[in-house]
Amino acid sequence: MKTFSVKFLPDDKTVQATAGKSVLEAAIVAGIPINSVCGGDGVCGKCRVIVKSGQVEAEPNVFLTRREIQRGMALACRTFIQGDLVIEVPLESRVGGVPQLASEDAVRFGRISERVGEGAVFARNPLCRKEYLELSAPCLDDNISDQERLYRELRQRRDLPIMQMGLAILQKLPDLLRKSDWKATALLGHRGGTTEVMDVEAGNTSQKQLGIALDVGTTTVVAHLVDLQSSETLATQAKYNSQISLGDDVISRIMYSSTDTRRKQLRDLIVNDINDLIAGLMMASKVRLHDVTYIVCAGNTTMVHLLLGLDPANIRRDPYVPCVSLPPAIRAVEIGIKINPRGLLLALPSVSSYVGGDVVADVLVTGMTDSPDLSLLIDMGTNGELVIGNAEWLVCCSASAGPAFEGGGITCGMRATRGAIEHLTLSAGGAIAEVSIVGGGKPLGICGSGLIDAIAELLRNGCIDRRGRFVETACGGKLREAESGEPEIVLFPGDQTALGKDIVLTEADINNFIHSKGAIYMAAECLMAHVDLSFNDLKHVYIAGGFGNYLNIERGVEIGLLPDIERQKFHFVGNGSVQGAKIVLLSRDALAYVQTRIADAMTYFELSSDHKYMNEYSSCLFLPHTNIEKFPSLRNKIGAGGGTPAAAPSAGPRRSATAGSARRK
Amino acid sequence: MKTFSVKFLPDDKTVQATAGKSVLEAAIVAGIPINSVCGGDGVCGKCRVIVKSGQVEAEPNVFLTRREIQRGMALACRTFIQGDLVIEVPLESRVGGVPQLASEDAVRFGRISERVGEGAVFARNPLCRKEYLELSAPCLDDNISDQERLYRELRQRRDLPIMQMGLAILQKLPDLLRKSDWKATALLGHRGGTTEVMDVEAGNTSQKQLGIALDVGTTTVVAHLVDLQSSETLATQAKYNSQISLGDDVISRIMYSSTDTRRKQLRDLIVNDINDLIAGLMMASKVRLHDVTYIVCAGNTTMVHLLLGLDPANIRRDPYVPCVSLPPAIRAVEIGIKINPRGLLLALPSVSSYVGGDVVADVLVTGMTDSPDLSLLIDMGTNGELVIGNAEWLVCCSASAGPAFEGGGITCGMRATRGAIEHLTLSAGGAIAEVSIVGGGKPLGICGSGLIDAIAELLRNGCIDRRGRFVETACGGKLREAESGEPEIVLFPGDQTALGKDIVLTEADINNFIHSKGAIYMAAECLMAHVDLSFNDLKHVYIAGGFGNYLNIERGVEIGLLPDIERQKFHFVGNGSVQGAKIVLLSRDALAYVQTRIADAMTYFELSSDHKYMNEYSSCLFLPHTNIEKFPSLRNKIGAGGGTPAAAPSAGPRRSATAGSARRK
Question: Which residue of B has its CA nearest to A315?
C-alpha cells in the first residue's frame, strides 16, 4: 500500500497514512481533536478542514457551499488521501479548550463533607482504605505465619471474617515486615463480604490516602482528587472526551465500536484522557501517584462499557441489553489507568442500557430517595434521562433529545467552552440588549443555554411565532435568506465575532431545538401520566446535566422545556456524576445505598413503547405547547405569534441524522 | 568473561559456561539431573562426575579416593571450569528414573470414592466446578444485563449471595451468549463466601471437569489426574523433584534460595517438573489441558513456599516463622503452571514451619480426627513429623531424622528407584539369603527399607552389637577395612552388582542410620510424655512418608525405630499427601475440615526446647534402645551384642553436615 505524509496545521504535526484513508482517520492518528458528531459517517458536516495542498478524493456532500469548496474546504471524514497533504484544521472544527464546569461543590442539598462523615447520612468508610499496624515481633511462643500475624492484628480492630491476600503481596511480606521493624500500613479493599489486603507498605503511610471521583461523560470528562480522610477536594480537572472524534453521541460511538480494534481505539482514547486528567491533578496538588489507590467513576452505560472494553453493541439493539449493570471493582491498571498499580476502579451501577451510573449518581446527590416528598430529576443532554419518585419508589425513563443542547445540528452551535454565548437578552427587532460570553471576548458561537435565551427572547419580542417561524415584520431587517434558501436571523454581524463570520440562527436551527426541548417535556409528561400524577404534585424538580446549571428557569418554562410550576421548586444539581462518585468514593455504605436503594429500586419505563409519547409528541413542537392551558402562567406573556395552530408540524418524534427515534436516538 | 563449552556424557548435551563456574552449575543449565544432597556446598560428596577432557580447577575434598581422582573423578560442585570440557555423569550420580510409588489408592481407611460422595464423610462439591445453564433469551420485558441474567440463573439453583466476574469474562460474555443461543457452561470457583464465575464456555461442557491432586515432596513429585464428577483417578505420574540438584533437603534448599534469582530458579525447577507431570497425564489419559481447571497440592511448608515464590528464609531462623500457613487459591498460570488459564491452584494449609500441608493431608487420610481412639501418625522422611490425637485434640512435632531413610549419608545408599535393594534377609555370617530389588535385575545400591532390613538382620545374626559395631567373629570373613580405615561389610561383591562395584555397609553408615531412627523414636516418646500418655494407650499407629509403605514393621521395632506394641495396630498410609490432596480436590467441605479440624486444631510441640528430648536422645542410639525394658517382646530375641552398654555413645542429637539439630536439621 502506498503511504503519504499528512501535515496538520496549525499544530504542525505530520503523520504517515496509506492511500485511501480519510483525513479524519489521519487526524485521529495524529492526535488532532477534530469535531465529528456522526463518527465519520458524513452526515453531520462538523469535521470541516481546509486542504492547503496535495491531492485528495472527496465525496460530494450537502454541507459545504460552493464558495467554501472553492476555498479548499472539505469534510475530513469524506476526503480521502491520494498524495502528500497539508491540512488546516480551523478553530470551529476543533474539539478543544477546557469545558465550562459547574461550580466545584455545586451540591446544594448538603455539601459532601456534610453528607459523608461521622453522624452524617453516610459513614466515612471508603471501600479502599489504609490501616497502620504495629505488630508484635514473633517469638518461639508466638510464631504464626507473617500473613496470620497481619490478619490477627487487623481482626483485633474490626470484624473481618474473610481475608484475602494475593501472591504479589505475600512475596514481599516477610522482608518488608522485618525491615520495617513490624510497623507497616495495610491497604485494604472491602468487596462483598471479603477484605483484601491489596498492598502492604513499610512504616506509617496512612496519612496518604487519596482517591479520584470521575465523571466519564459522553462529551466531558471531569476528575476530582479527594483526600479520603478529610473528604477535602484537593484539585479538579476537566477536558473533552477525545472519543468525540469518533462520534458525538453514544449511538454513533456504539456504531463505531463494531470491531475489537475499534473498541480498543475508543478505550485507549478515554483512558488517555483520564490519565491526562490524573497527571493534571498530580501537578496541581503535588501529591504522589502512588498514594492514589481508588477511583470511583460515574458515566452512562455506554461510556462505562467503552471504558471497561465491553462490547456495547446490544445496548442499541432491541431489547437493549447491556453486558453489565453492576461492573466489578477492577484494578485500574487492568485498563491502563495509571494510579497505584494495586489501586481499584469502580464504576457506579446502572439501571438499564439508557439509564446509567451518571443518573444514579444524580439521584444520590439530590437526596430525593431520603425524602417522602415527590421529586422529578431531569438530566438534560443529548440523551435526556428523567427520574421520578421518593423514598418509597423510583421510576425512570430516557428520551433522545438530539445534540441541540450541546450545540449540535445548530448552524453556529458550539459547546459551552470559551467564546460561547451562554446568555443573551434581545430588545425589540431582535437586537442584542445584553450578552454573556464564556471566558469573555468576542463570541465564537452559541451554546445550549444561549440558544434557550435566544429562542425565548425572539418569542417574547414576537420575532418568531409559536411554531418557531420568523415573523418578518418584527425582525427589524435582521432577517435574510441563507445560501440554502431558508430564512435566518443575524444575531452578531461578522465584525463583532471571533472568527469574523456572522453568528446566525436559521429556521432549521430553531426547529431542531424545538424537537429537542419537545422530547424532554413530552418524556416528563408521559412519566407523570405513567405514575398517575401531575406536575403539580411535585415538591422538587432537580435539573442536572451538561448545561443544566446555566439554564434560565423562566425561559426554560417559556419555551416549553420545563413544566410551568412554581419556580422555587426548581433546583440545580451541578455535576451530579462527579459529586455522586465522590460520595461513593468516601463511603462504601453509600455504594451499598446506591445499589440497593437507587439502582435496584428503580423501575425503567420504556418510552418507545408508550402510545402517549408517540401520539402527543407533536403537540410539544410549539413554543411552549399547542395547548397553552398547560402553561397557565404564560397565557398573557406570549408575543405576537400566539394562538393555537391549525395543524401539528409533523407526526411522531423526529429522527435525527445520526440516530433513531425516541429512546434509541 | 571468557566462556567455554561443556559437553555432558552420555546425554551428549553441550552448554556454554563462563570461566570459573562450577560443573554443577553448568549441569543445571544443561538440565542434567545431578545428585547433590548438600546443594553445592561440597559436603555430601554425592555429585561425582568424571572429567574426560579439558582443564578444570578442583578443590581438594575427603570424598574421593586417590584411585578415583586418578580416574578423573571429581565433585561437580567443587570443580570449576577453566576450558572446554567433556564431562561424564555416572549412573550413581544421577537423579533419575521414576520414583517407586505407593500403590495408587493405598488409602486403607476407606477408598477416596467411599470417603467423598453422597452420604460419605464429605460431600462431593469441588471448590471449582462447572454448571451448565440454559438461559432465557432477553426481551423488552426482561432486558437485564447479560451478567445479571447469568447470575439470576445460577442463583435460582443455589444460594450464592456474593458473585464475582472478572473483566476478561465480561468482555467475551455478550458475544458468547448470543452465539451459543443462550446455552452456556459456567466455571465456578467458591472462595470464602464468594462465588467467582471464573469462565464461561459456549454450550454444555459440564461433562469435562478435571482436576489434579499433587504431592510436592522434597524428593518426589506425584500427580494424579482426577475426574471431578466420578472421583475416578484417570492417570498418575511421578518424578523426582529437580530441585534435588540444588539441595537434597529443605534446609539446604532454603539456604540456597537466598536471592530472588535463586528463588526463581528453584521455582522454575519445580514448576517445570509439575508441567512435565501434567503433560504425562495428558498423554496417558488423552484429555484436553483446557478441561483441567483445578489443582490441589500438598507439600511441606518449605516446598509450598518455593512453589509459590515465597521467601522461606525465616522458616529456618529462630523463631521459625513461615510467610504463610494458609496459602490463597491462585490462578495456576500465575506461577507458570499450564492448565486451563483460568484454573486455580490451592495448597493445603500447614500448621507451622515444620509441619506442613503434607502432614495435614496424612491426618485427613487416616481419619484419626473422626474417631475417639487415640492414634499416632509418623511421617518418616528426612524430616520426620509426628501427630498424636483423636477427634478431640491433636498435638504434633517435628524431628530432623537426617537423609539416611532416603539413602543419604550412606556409602551405597540410594532412593527407592530402579536397582535399589528394598528388602533382604541374611543368614548366619551375613550372607544374603533373600533379596528384593526395585525393578528387578542387579542391585545398584540400598534404599531406606533395605537398610532397615540389613541392620535388623545383622543384629539378629549377631554380626553387629546393640551399639551398631561389627562383631568380627560373626561376620564370616565378609568384614574388611575400608580405604578410610573404618570397618565395612560387603553385602554384594562387585561381580553381582549393576555398576561392578561392591555394595557395602560401613560402621559409619550404621551409625548414621541409628541417629536417624533414634530421632524418630525419641520424638515419639517425647510426644507421648508431653500428652502424659504411653505407647500402650495407642489404638493405631499410622506410618506415612516416602519409604513408609515398604517398611517391615517387625524389623522396624527390632531396631528401635517403632515402639514395641501390638503389630496389628500399625497401618500404612501410602502417599497421604496425594490422597489427601485428592479428597480436598473433590470436596470443599473437606477443605474446610482440613483447615478448622486439622490445621487450626493442631498444637505444635517444640522438641528443640524439650529437656527430655535433649537429655534422653542418646539412649535411643542403640539397637533397639539402652533400656531393653521398653521393648519387652524383643528381650529374648536380641543376638550376641545384647546387654546394657556402659556409656552412651554421644550426648545430644547429632548435627548432620548439612543441618542443625533436632528440628532445625
Answer: B145
